[in-house]
Design a protein that fits this description.
The structure holds 2 protein chains of 2 kinds. By secondary structure, chain A is of the alpha+beta class. Among the domains of chain A are: about 110 residues, Tumour Suppressor Smad4; about 100 residues, no CATH class. Helices cover about 25% and strands about 15% of the residues of chain A. The C terminus of chain A is likely disordered. The radius of gyration of chain B is 28 Å and the shape is elongated. The chains are: A alpha+beta, B mainly alpha.
Chain lengths: ~625, ~290
């Protein structure tokens, strides 16, 4: 019974050196201590680690002396019996022991150190261990990984999303996400419902947005002027402009004048901004140079280069009035057919004011009449309704002429024929106890004027006390009569008329047909600051403010004025009768509300007076 | 290409032979990049784009084209650096231009965006570009400051010599620990089996190894030997001395690794981010023309 112990070690160049020792013992001790039969200088072993015993020819018994075992074919065990003829591989710490049977029947233990003395002693590749390789994923791998991921996520997916769009797209905008990452910014408020539905506007890949895409919904939008005229009106581009236009054309952009030129999208949520002044100035800045026949002057900036306003004024009143567009510079008059002195009515002293004071409670007048007492705004506040005799005048200017059983009889306003008929009827029936009250407005006296009450003007002149119908009719239509004070009256026989004629009154609600003025937006201003009504003694005086008056607050788009105003504030490119489109600006609205509160608290009785624009 | 005669003439004008890429040719590319930035900013102020600056205006497209071409050229350094040449278009000149023009891209690309950023592929490309530039900036900073520290730390040892020193100590530890009890030997084995290159990226960059087995082994050892006098033949004392030496060597090695890691780490961002940027730039440009 003997063991053959073969200690195998490697030289530096990898050659094996085998030292074989034959030990004629039936039992060997194995451990780190030097006195062992098999001495393995291995810190993983105990000084006395195990016993190897040859039990019989076919059995070798291994037994760990301590609690640390050894490995047999990969499993850690404390004891094992091995048939040397079959052999086995054992592992003690960093050493591998191969057990086999020699030709002479001896058990061969081939011992080989397989672990290096320390981790540092193991073979290291300098370039690897001293760099970050191994600690981080490789640069190449990361680079290609990221690149491919981005190309898939931000190129392939959006294109796939575009290509796989259902023909009838009824998806919710919040569920469409495929090409969301391509959107350069949110759409404006009005187009929010199209968010994520890129193809609504970007109809064909690599084809820029066309007007036809806009016109799918905006069917009624008409052009500013005939295309040929617009082409003629457009200022010729400079060298840079031509270059840009050339580049744009090369990239397939539509020629100038496309919807998207002015209406930019993806510029942020909230209302779309109105077209900047520059787009208008391209043509209108020097329009007269190119469109000689144009009736409108050059305009480049409201503050510095804008013609005087022109108003559509009535030059001839009547049933078929004629109108002319006149510049305010010439001091045009506007003859509505009505006689009316603003100054008397607005005076803080005098009969009108006195009368107003007596009617405070009933009509809400102040110490004197104010604009609002007669001028009523339209529902939207933009303009003013025509003055209505029954609503706005009659509280003072009564047309009552008789009371029968407590009912007041009134001459019918606006119907001269009915007036005549009523008066004839009055004289045909039982003779008047008192002559009818037919006096003109100038003859009313304070204290007895409320609507529906008769003022008996018994002073003097026989003409005021007609005893016959014709006299009464003449009296009412003639100077000093009820109609004559406000209206232009033509007696019978003139212009071939058989009867008395009252010139029809036409009160325009709008004077500036191409510009938009919103009284509601100016409610913080007093009426008088723009309209010189308190000094106007003649209704034909046009009380519209000139451009200089506006310029005290309004300047050009980029000016430092209180209210920088682009063209789009008053003018509409797609001209119609409505207001020019303007975005709701929350900050401005808030500012206006604040101002209103301030002004109202400072002056609660601030009149809300408006003039027709 | 520079004529062979050109170089001596330029040096004769007082240029230093070992002029770094940052100072190349009297900061020529720094000047060019500065002028580019000033011109870009001035034109941004002067050009009136309505309603406001954005990448889709003619000015935006111009800046975008310049920026994209610049990015492509900057990327070419990756190819160019593999061919070292001298002269006017030397690799050094190229690198100098790469650094300064790359920095000027911050201005050009930011003006291209018109400061309109969002969660989209366009801003992704911008963000990746900024990541590339900032990582490059970090790279320049460490290239300028760390080599001195690296060289001081090495004490004229090569990397392999540092590793061999650790190995030599390990071998001595192994031998010195043979007489120890199993428990004590296990402690030494911990130190031996600790990988000096182990301990993740954070440890490598910070140079802090709180779970260093050698330090722990020594601490426990000192606990045992603390109250016994050093008689000169206690194997524990010998092991203690060896652990001390190993710690010192490890500290030097780890400082070296830290400095090297700082010199390398930016490229792990710079290069992959560049590829990601090229992909995002492609998606950005295609998307703009796809939905034109």
């Amino acid at each position: 019974m003997s063991f053959l112990v073969r200690q195998i070690s490697l030289t530096a160049d990898g050659r094996e050196i085998v030292r074989a020792t034959s030990i004629a013992k039936s039992q060997l001790s194995l451990g780190r201590a030097a006195e062992n039969d098999i001495h393995l200088p291995d810190l993983a072993l105990e000084p006395d680690h195990a016993r190897i015993e040859q039990v019989d020819e076919r059995t070798v018994r291994l037994r760990a002396t301590g609690t640390l075992g050894f490995e047999l074919e990969g499993r850690t065990v404390l004891r094992a019996e091995i048939d040397p003829a079959q052999g086995a591989e054992l592992r003690f710490g960093g050493h591998r022991i191969t057990l086999s049977r020699g030709e002479d029947g001896a058990t061969i233990l081939s011992i080989r150190r397989i672990d290096a003395v320390s981790e540092a002693s193991e073979e290291k590749e300098e370039a690897r261990v001293f760099s970050l390789r191994g600690l981080l994923p490789g640069k190449r791998l990361t680079a290609w990984g990221l690149a491919v991921a981005i190309l898939i996520g931000f190129l392939a997916v959006p294109i796939w999303s575009y290509a796989s769009r259902p023909a009838n797209d009824t998806r919710n905008i919040y569920t469409v996400a495929g090409d969301r990452s391509w959107s350069s910014g949110p759409l404006s408020q009005a187009h929010h419902a199209l968010e994520g539905r890129c193809e609504t506007c970007h109809q064909k890949a690599f084809v820029s947005v066309r007007d036809s895409a806009c016109q799918t919904c905006h069917k009624d939008v008409h052009d500013h002027a005939p295309a040929a005229r617009i082409a003629m009106a457009r200022a010729e581009a400079g060298l840079g402009g031509k270059l840009l236009a050339g580049v744009a054309a090369a990239f397939g952009k539509p020629p100038e004048g496309a919807c998207v030129d002015c209406h930019r999208e993806h510029e942020g949520a909230g209302p779309m901004q109105p077209a900047p002044q520059a787009f208008c100035v391209d043509c209108h800045g020097t329009l007269k140079d190119r469109l000689k026949d144009s009736k409108i002057g050059n305009a480049a900036d409201f503050g510095t280069s804008h013609p005087q306003f022109s108003a559509l004024v009535q030059t001839r009143p009547g049933r078929y009035p004629s109108f002319l567009r006149r510049s305010l510079d010439g001091g045009p008059t506007d003859d509505s057919g009505l006689k009316f002195p603003h100054d008397i009515h607005l005076s803080a002293t005098g009969g009108v004011a006195k009368m107003a004071r007596t009617m405070k409670a009933q009509y809400g007048f102040g110490d004197a009449l104010a604009c609002k007492d007669c001028h009523k705004p339209t529902a939207d506040g933009v303009r003013f309704l025509p003055v209505d005799m029954e609503r706005d005048c009659q509280m003072c200017h009564s047309l009552a002429f008789e009371t029968i059983g407590g009912t007041v009889r009134t001459l019918r306003h606006g119907q001269p024929d009915q007036v005549i008929a009523d008066l004839r009827a009055y004289f045909r029936s039982t003779g008047p106890v008192e002559p009818p009250a037919l006096g003109g407005v100038a003859r009313r006296r304070p204290g007895d004027y409320a609507q529906g009450r008769i003022y008996h003007a018994y002073f003097g002149a026989a003409a005021t006390r007609p005893s016959r119908a014709d006299d009464a009719i003449r009296a009412v239509f003639s100077k000093g009569g009820a109609c004559y004070d406000c209206h232009t009256v033509t007696p019978p026989g003139t212009n071939g008329n058989a009867n008395w004629q009252v010139l029809p009154v036409h009160q325009p609600m709008r004077y500036m047909m191409n510009g938009w003025f919103d009284h509601a937006a100016h409610r913080t201003e007093k009426c008088e600051s723009c309209h010189a009504a308190p000094r106007s003694h003649d209704a034909r005086q046009l009380l519209l403010p000139k451009i200089d008056s506006c310029r005290t607050c309004h300047g050009g788009e980029k000016s430092k004025a209180d209210v920088p105003s682009g063209c789009a504030m008053c003018h509409s490119y797609h001209i119609d009768d409505g207001a020019p489109w303007a975005p709701a600006t929350p900050s401005l609205d808030k500012d206006m509300q604040d101002r209103e509160k301030l002004t109202n608290s400072a002056n609660p009785a601030l009149p809300r007076m408006r003039e027709p624009g | 290409m520079a004529t062979p005669a050109a170089s001596p003439i330029r040096r004769a004008r007082g240029e230093v032979l070992h002029d770094g890429f940052l100072r190349h040719a009297g900061f020529r590319w720094l000047k060019i990049a500065t002028i580019t930035c000033v011109l870009s900013i001035a034109s941004y102020m002067l050009v009136d784009v309505t309603p406001h600056h954005n990448g889709g205006s003619w000015y935006g497209y111009t800046m975008g084209t310049i920026g994209a071409l610049l990015i492509l050229w900057l990327t070419l350094l990756g190819l160019r650096k593999r061919a070292m040449t001298r002269g006017r278009w030397s690799l050094k000149a190229w690198t100098s231009a790469h650094v300064y023009l790359g920095l000027s891209l911050i201005v050009i690309a930011t003006l291209h965006t018109g400061f309109q950023l969002g969660w989209n592929v366009h801003t992704l490309a911008y963000a990746l570009m900024m990541l590339v530039i900032l990582s490059g900036l970090f790279g320049i900073t460490v290239y300028a400051s760390l080599p001195t520290a690296l060289s001081n730390n090495r004490a004229e040892m090569t990397q392999v010599q540092m590793l061999d020193a650790v190995r030599a100590i390990d071998r001595q530890l192994h031998d010195a620990a043979q007489p120890l009890t199993h428990e004590q030997a296990a402690l030494v084995r911990q130190s031996l089996e600790d990988d000096p290159f182990g301990g993740g990226l954070v440890a490598r960059l910070s140079g802090r190894y709180p779970r260093c087995a050698t330090a722990r082994a020594q601490a426990v050892l000192r606990h045992w030997t603390g109250d016994t006098p050093d008689t000169g033949n206690d194997p524990l004392e010998r092991v203690d001395a060896l652990l001390e030496r190993k710690q010192a060597m490890l500290a030097r090695l780890r400082r070296h690794l830290k400095l090297k890691a700082l010199l390398e780490i930016w490229l792990y961002i710079h290069v992959p981010a560049t590829f990601a940027l090229l992909a995002a730039l492609t998606a950005h440009i295609v998307s703009v023309f796809f939905y034109w």
